[in-house]
Amino acid sequence: MNQASCVRFLHQKELEHVLTKIDDIRALDEIARFAPPGWSFRPVTCNGTSVCLLKEAGVLKRTHSCGSEHIIMRPTVVDVAKHLKCEANQRRTSKRRVAQTMERWFHQEFVKGLRQFGEFRVFIVTAKDITATRGRKGKVIEVVHTLELADRELVVTVLSSCASFPGPTETHQGIHIQQVKHFAFYAFETLRSRSDWFTVFESLEVGARIDVGVTMSGDVAQPFINEVTRIYEADFFAEWLAQPGTYVSSAVSTALAEVFIAATDS
Ligand SMILES: Nc1ncnc2c1ncn2[C@@H]1O[C@H](COP(=O)(O)OP(=O)(O)OP(=O)(O)O)[C@@H](O)[C@H]1O
Ligand SMILES: [Mg+2]
User: So which domain of life are we looking at (predicted)?
Assistant: First the structure.
């Protein structure tokens, strides 16, 4: 490979999109508006800077953060006043202070199901398909379930293709892994088909880990995306996979080579 064929992965714009979080959340809000019935739930997210969309504290989150480092599940009045600038807080916050820091706090509706039922980490990697978008199509290659316990220990389970999760009551149908997979695949391909795919979702040409939560609060379970974890930073939970636990990473490296090296060499 000569120098002219070097590409940057991720592009700066996509990296900024990921770090600010809220732009990804808005893209997910948009695709949920046009999603099939049952797939349109989104937690309300207020960017914390203008008129409040939430009217309650909810869960406080911060940009430029990962590993749950800046998540405040039960914010106090002091946390809200210190971090959020929407509505009443706006007047008390000096514009200078906002401008000085790149990190921003925002808040989101508390989703009970995310704590109670954990997250489904759906690994999607693309493969060649001449009939699909730009000649590639995502394929779900693994689903790992994670549940954070009260002491913050993470319980990790690799799910079989017939796993299902019961709902909170006897009449509630709960959710089946196939529903989670279909939903994640739909969201993945819809993000790839957006007009801004090249600037902010280009890494999905290789794959992504779609982190799916479920709300069981209505009569039926509704999946929603908590995060689109870019493949370069996704924990593959390798030690929990069938050993040697490298099939997710091999699929990713094959896709990376096909998308970037083949494209630049031709
Ligand atoms: N709106 C919410 N309602 C309830 N719980 C939430 C909410 N948002 C986040 N959480 C809890 O906090 C955890 C981490 O949230 P999130 O994935 O958004 O943050 P993160 O800093 O990107 O963390 P990570 O790197 O571990 O993914 C979730 O798995 C969930 O348990
Ligand atoms: Mg997360």
Answer: Eukaryota
Instruction: Write down which residue in 55, 86, 110 finishes a domain.
Output: 110
Residues with CB under 6 A from ligand 1: 43, 59, 61, 65-69, 71, 108-111, 114-115, 119, 148, 226-227
Task: Give 140-169 pLDDT, tens digit per residue.
Answer: 999 999 999 988 899 999 998 888 888 888
Q: What number does the ligand 1 atom closest to the CA of 58 have?
A: 1
The number of the ligand 1 atom at minimal distance from the alpha carbon of 21 is 22
Q: What domain range includes position 151?
A: 3-8+113-265
Q: Any idea which ligand is nearest the CA of 21?
A: 1
* pTM above threshold 0.70: yes
What distance, in Å, lies between the first and last C-alpha atoms of the chain? Answer: 11
**Mean pLDDT across the stretch 177-196?**
97
Q: What is the dihedral of CA 133, 135, 141, 143, to 10 degrees?
A: -20
Q: Separation of 61 CA from ligand 2 center, angstroms? A: 11
In the chain, the number of structural domains is: 2
Burial (Cβ within 10 Å: 0-12, 13-18, ≥19) of residue 23: middle
